[in-house]
Amino acid sequence: MAAAPSPPPFSHALSAGALAGVTVDLVFFPVDTIKTRLQSAQGFWASGGFKGIYRGVGSVALGGAPGAAIFFSTYESLKSAFSTLSPSLSPSIVHMLSASGGETAACLIRVPTEVVKSRQQTQAYGAGTSSLRAARIVLAQEGLRGFYRGFGITVFREIPFTSIQFPLYEFLKARVSASAGRARARPWEGAACGMLAGGVAAAATTPLDVIKTRVMLSPTPVSVGKVFRDVWANEGSRALFAGVAPRVAWISAGGAVFLGVYEAALDLIGRR
What we know:
By secondary structure, this protein is an all-alpha fold. Helix content is about 75%, strand content about 0%.
């Protein structure tokens, strides 16, 4: 039987996570733009349609690397700590708790970039507004709190998402490596596992993503409950799955790139 894999050093997880984050954000940004416009209360075409699908990419390029770096370094650290301090916990619970902690930490950076990005993607401040200009408008009109519009619903969405994605991802990786008699899955195998796990998690959490998008795009502060009631009453249950196809496609492919690049970068850097 192959030995259990050892966790990567903190600095390696930080560097590999940063590379994975900026890679997946830049590659799949157009799909995210289409998904956001489909979920917008203005409607797809009024929000820009297929025009300017890289609008808002500046904020994502700035926040993607540190957000992913914080996620993976926190995830790997918590995974090691839980396994050491509570060895009786099942691997699925360890992965669920560790991923939830990593996402919560990453959201401190990710949410401000999401706010700016979503405003630009839907042309909330006009078609020619830069990321920096959009950030200044948010600050002037809403203060620092404006950058954290939707923080609660984002965390509320990400914890269920990662609670599905990462236990499934780690389970699939373990099965693949065990069947091959190896301690670790190859990067391309990790990419395949990430694609499947990401797609399942994306489909299951689409309603939370729709609510999150509406909260962030609202011109005034609004509660999650009110947004949900308005969507349900005015647009029906189908609206809660608006953009599900591009979301699943984007996150499935993104999961393959994100986790594949992460595993490849760890191998390149050297896990030990």
